[in-house]
Amino acid sequence: MSNPHFLDPDWWRHAVVYQVYPRSFADADNDGTGDVRGITEKLPYLAELGVDAVWVSPWYPSPLLDGGYDVADYYDISPDFGTLADADAFIAKAHELGIRVLIDLVPNHSSWEHPWFKEALAAAPGSPERDRYVFRDGRGADGELPPNNWASIFGGPAWTRTTDPDGTPGQWYLHLFDISQPDWNWDNPEIPAMFDDVLRFWFDRGIDGFRVDVADAMAKDPALPDVAVDPHTGLGTNDKRVGSPQWDHAGVATIQRRWRAVADEYADTELGGRVFVAEAYLDPIERLVEYVRPDRLHTTFNFDALISAWTADSQRAVIAKTVPAHESVGAPTTWVLGNHDNTRVATRYGKPTTGKDYTAVEHEDAALDPIELGAALHAMPTDIDLGRRRARAAALLEFALPGGAYIYQGEELGLDEVEDIPEELLQDPAWERSGHRVRGRDGCRVPLPWSGEAPPFGFGLDASPWLPQPARWADLTAEKQDADPASTLNLYRAALKLRRERADFRTDALAFHAVDGGDVLAFTRGSGTLAVVNFGAEPVELPAGEVLLSSVDLVDGRLPSDAAVWLAV
Ligand code: NOJ
Asked: How far is residue 227's CA from residue 149's CA, in Å, rounded to a whole number?
């Protein structure tokens, strides 16, 4: 399918972006780990799916202690994934097929294998090398206590003590995430300068934008004060209340403006339209939309949509909250059902608890910790047929909304979370750091099933994938779904084709529409397209209109439960 909007510098305002987790997408060199050549080979599949852009999770050299979000070199491709030449070929091929390319920028921390961190460890306290990261003396008589009470997102303290070259205990370094992910010191001018350079390096190679990892971190209160104690851990809380010294600090705005200026330097290049999407779990929405003011980033993930419960009221509340908030700053809203950090949507919606009820909770509290949410969900039984049915309806809801939409790889196949990965194979740092209380995010990162009847399902030729695939995925391969007109893959293709072609979907107009009876959400897009989602147990009557697409067959003209339809009205 050709993409008529490819050259539009505002392409990102309505884009459907497909997230590739490179380790798990396609393994061209058959070593059990996905790679860049694998992504390139599957680009025709993505073009046929009808996406406008691909976002590739980190592909940089990395010890992969946090799945690549521990970057050892921002200017290269991991040898596990390929070479810079492979990346160039991938970008060129994507553009040839009308697909924009976003990559991950990981600016809060590096890997402990980054040369500057190694230099910092080898240098003396107070040296310029140490000043690139956040090193401090410990508290207590011998510096044996961490400099403050901050906690790592993955569990345990956010500080690790170093050992001096003579073997004596030394200073501590800060890591808001894993011990292997030391935080950069953004107050040191070398760091913003280095990241400007990284942006230009990749923009010059033809990248269309960056997904910014923890876009609400980076800047910290230089006094590094203690925060309120979390009674469960005895360490500081990681809530993001206004005034937090760790999150959404005032300095974040300065950094984002600087990046925007770099992206804008490329406005007059052949493709133009270089953009950022912020990853920030931040409440309330008024704080989040500050990030997408015209002089800051372009878009931000809508995680409220991702964690909203499967009820009409909750979903309506999220839409009613997020659309006007984004409009107020002139930015498009985005819609997200999943990513590499969250339980897959088909499984989530098959659980007794499907998410957070946005009608019941006013949001002044801390954001939900997605990792803890995942752990709680994991313990609940799943009705996967129900979950998959709802996930299909959720896709039609998502793609009918104004703004951008994200697809996490495998959502288009209706993949479920792999909840029974043997403990000895779990790789998420949260597993170790939480003392084996939180299994973490590996269950949504299992390599994709492309073809065949048994693992590796065409992921590679015959090598065992780095995480085992369940045998049940034989029914969900892209090959099988390609041949089945009623498959989730073909539903996605049909939806994206309509979304691309129908002028109503390229407007920003959305008006809620009242439908009698049931637990129903309905809204009009533009002047002539109506989306109806039935969250209730009973079928509902539909307004008059021509059916464009439905997530299940209608029954006597009525929309069954847990289903969605698009009507021309
Ligand atoms: C958010 C990323 O999505 C997640 O996978 C990672 O662990 C953290 N940021 C730390 O980089």
From this structure: 7
C-beta atoms surrounding 73 within 10 Å: 15
Angle between helices 488-501 and 384-400 (to 10 degrees): 10
Spell out which residues line ligand 1, taking CB within 6 angstroms.
66-67, 69, 106, 177, 213-214, 279, 340-341
Residue at a domain's end among 468, 496, 524 = 496
Whether residues 24 and 150 share a domain: the answer is no
Nearest ligand 1 atom to the CA of 109 is: 11
pLDDT given for residue 379 in this prediction = 83
Q: For residue 279, indicate whether it is catalytic.
A: yes
Q: Report if residue 503 sits inside a domain.
A: no
For residue 141, give the CATH number of its domain: 3.90.400.10
Query: Which protein residue has the closest C-alpha to ligand 1 atom 3?
Result: 341
Residue 411 designated active-site: no
With the most atoms of ligand 1 within 8 angstroms of its CB, the residue from 57, 102, 213 to mutate is 213
In this structure, the answer to whether residues 134 and 91 fall within a common structural domain is: no
End position of a domain, from candidates 473, 496, 519: 496
**Cα of 18 to ligand 1 centre, how many Å?**
17
**Residues 154 and 201 grouped into a single domain:** no
CB atoms within 10 A of CB 482: 15
3 assigned to some structural domain: no
pTM for the model stands at 0.97
Q: What is the pLDDT of residues 303-336, one digit of tens each?
A: 999 999 999 999 999 999 999 999 999 999 999 9
Residue 372 scores a pLDDT above 80: no
Task: Answer yes or no: is 385 within a domain.
Answer: yes
Ligand 1 centroid to Cα of residue 497, in Å, is 32
Q: What's the total number of domains in the chain?
A: 3
- The DSSP bridge pattern shows strands 404-408 and 16-20 to be parallel
pLDDT digits (tens, 9 = 90+) for 16-60: 999 999 999 999 999 999 999 999 999 999 999 999 999 999 999
> Is the alpha carbon torsion for 162, 164, 167, 171 positive or negative?
negative
The reply to whether 223 and 125 lie within a common domain is no
Supply the pLDDT for residue 532. 98
Task: Mark whether 166 and 104 lie in a shared domain.
Answer: no
Distance CA 294, CA 310 (A): 33
Is residue 335 domain-resident? yes
Task: Name which of 360, 108, 365, 136 is nearest 255 in CA terms.
Answer: 108
Full domain range(s) for residue 553 = 509-568
Which residue from 20, 57, 66 has its CB within 8 A of the most atoms of ligand 1, so it is best to mutate?
66
165-181 residue pLDDT tens: 889 999 999 999 999 99
| CATH number of domain containing 375 | 3.20.20.80
Q: Which DSSP state fits 439?
A: -
